[in-house]
Structure formats: structure tokens, C-alpha cells
């Protein structure tokens, strides 16, 4: 992805969050220079991948395959004594016409909550022992306290205010119901680590390569290793 495109996406995302009165912690609005002289007391932000995330999953087409996320808080699988939080909280933005590709989590269990905007559609399948789509086994989920047993490949629609609990090993794909507009999604989950936890059905990168055609507007969590 070009840094100029990421900068534009972040500015649009901040405007959408402001419209829905979602307020970020201070580090969510830091400029690149604000990161340069941080002392060790801020290390949790870097170690636990807090902050902004923009990805096109290596597709080169953010408008078709893309996602924006901001992580407020998170634990750490590799340093649980240093960072004992067993939970993670994120806000995620999905545009109409975009898709979050099929994937499941090996470690993370999550609640996906539609907090406003359009309708979020989640297609669900069990995974096989070979980590492919299980086209035979029903999918068991909980939607707002209601236990569901669904046919493989069922599309679950979340209207604003509705949520879905997804456990490990369940493939899911996100998209927006056509004609309903951008969706504000909240995620409450166990500890998240995008370096080890995601199994995508197609072999695609979680964090994109960035072409530095202009200076960053905000840093992404993938930029922290360069500091």
C-alpha cells in the first residue's frame, strides 16, 4: 500500500469515528515525531500492538479487500507476567463493498458487535483438521445470548446493536450488506496477536508492505519495529 493512501484512509476513519462520537486515547492522535522520544513507561503500546492498523491483506485493492482497526488495550501471549491482561478491545471500520477475507483464530475468542452505521454480514463455516472449509458440520455460535446451530456457509446479519460470539476454529468472512453504508464494529476478545493467531483460507499477508511515497500521518502498529 502507498503511505499516501494509508494517510487518506486514516483521515477518513478519524472523521467517521468523530461522527459516531468514538474518542481515542492520546496515542491515537500522536504524530510521528511524538513517538521518537518515548521512554520505557510507554513500552506497552509497542509490545502489545496498540493503536492504528490499516491493511489491504496484500491485495493491492483496499476498496475490495481491506480493514481499518484501532486497538485500545491488549494482553500479550509471550509476556503474560509483564502484561497480564487476558483481553483485547478494538474498534474496526468496514466500508460498503469491502471484504474481510475468510480466516479463523487459533487462540482468540471474540465478540463482534455492530455499534452503528450499516449492517454487517458474517459468513461462517467450521474448519476441518486440514484447516479448510468444513462443508458438512453445522456451526454453533451465540448471537446476543441466543445459542444458534447454523448450516455451513450461513450468512449472519448484524444490525446496529447486535453481536456474535465466535470461538476458535470457526472460519468467518465480513462484508457490508449492500445499500446500508460503512459499519462501525467493536471487538471484545481474549488476547490478540496478529503475528501468530490468524489462519487465512488463502495465503495472504495480514500486514501489508508500505510504499513510502509521503510522510506518515499516523503510525501503524506495523511501523513500531522501525522506531
From TrEMBL:
<dbReference type="GO" id="GO:0046872">
    <property type="term" value="F:metal ion binding"/>
</dbReference>
<keyword id="KW-0119">Carbohydrate metabolism</keyword>
<protein>
    <recommendedName>
        <fullName>D-lyxose ketol-isomerase</fullName>
        <ecNumber>5.3.1.15</ecNumber>
    </recommendedName>
</protein>
<keyword id="KW-0479">Metal-binding</keyword>
<keyword id="KW-0413">Isomerase</keyword>
<dbReference type="InterPro" id="IPR010864">
    <property type="entry name" value="D-lyxose_isomer"/>
</dbReference>
<dbReference type="InterPro" id="IPR011051">
    <property type="entry name" value="RmlC_Cupin_sf"/>
</dbReference>
<comment type="similarity">
    <text>Belongs to the D-lyxose ketol-isomerase family.</text>
</comment>
<dbReference type="GO" id="GO:0047828">
    <property type="term" value="F:D-lyxose ketol-isomerase activity"/>
</dbReference>
<dbReference type="Pfam" id="PF07385">
    <property type="entry name" value="Lyx_isomer"/>
</dbReference>
<dbReference type="InterPro" id="IPR047581">
    <property type="entry name" value="EcSI_cupin"/>
</dbReference>
<dbReference type="InterPro" id="IPR014710">
    <property type="entry name" value="RmlC-like_jellyroll"/>
</dbReference>
<keyword id="KW-0464">Manganese</keyword>
Amino acid at each position: 500500500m502507498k503511505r499516501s493512501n494509508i494517510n487518506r484512509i486514516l483521515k477518513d476513519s478519524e472523521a467517521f469515528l468523530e461522527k459516531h462520537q468514538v474518542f481515542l486515547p492520546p496515542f491515537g492522535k500522536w504524530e510521528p515525531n511524538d513517538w521518537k522520544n518515548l521512554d520505557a513507561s510507554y513500552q506497552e503500546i509497542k509490545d502489545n500492538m496498540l493503536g492504528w492498523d490499516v491493511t489491504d491483506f496484500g491485495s493491492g485493492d483496499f476498496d475490495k479487500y481491506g480493514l481499518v482497526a484501532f486497538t485500545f488495550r491488549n494482553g500479550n501471549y509471550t509476556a503474560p507476567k509483564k502484561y497480564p491482561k487476558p483481553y483485547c478491545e478494538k474498534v474496526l471500520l468496514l466500508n460498503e463493498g469491502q471484504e474481510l477475507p475468510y480466516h479463523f483464530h487459533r487462540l482468540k475468542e471474540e465478540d463482534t458487535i455492530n455499534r452503528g452505521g450499516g449492517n454487517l454480514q458474517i459468513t461462517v463455516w467450521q474448519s476441518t483438521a486440514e484447516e479448510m472449509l468444513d462443508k458438512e458440520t453445522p456451526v454453533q455460535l451465540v448471537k446476543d445470548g441466543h445459542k444458534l446451530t447454523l448450516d455451513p456457509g450461513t450468512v449472519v446479519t448484524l444490525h446496529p446493536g447486535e453481536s456474535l460470539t465466535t470461538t476458535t476454529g470457526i472460519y468467518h468472512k465480513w462484508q457490508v450488506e449492500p445499500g446500508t453504508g460503512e459499519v462501525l464494529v467493536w471487538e471484545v476478545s481474549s488476547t490478540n496477536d496478529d503475528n501468530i493467531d490468524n489462519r487465512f483460507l488463502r495465503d495472504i499477508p495480514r500486514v501489508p508492505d508500505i510504499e513510502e511515497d509521503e510522510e506518515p500521518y499516523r503510525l501503524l502498529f506495523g511501523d513500531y519495529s522501525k522506531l
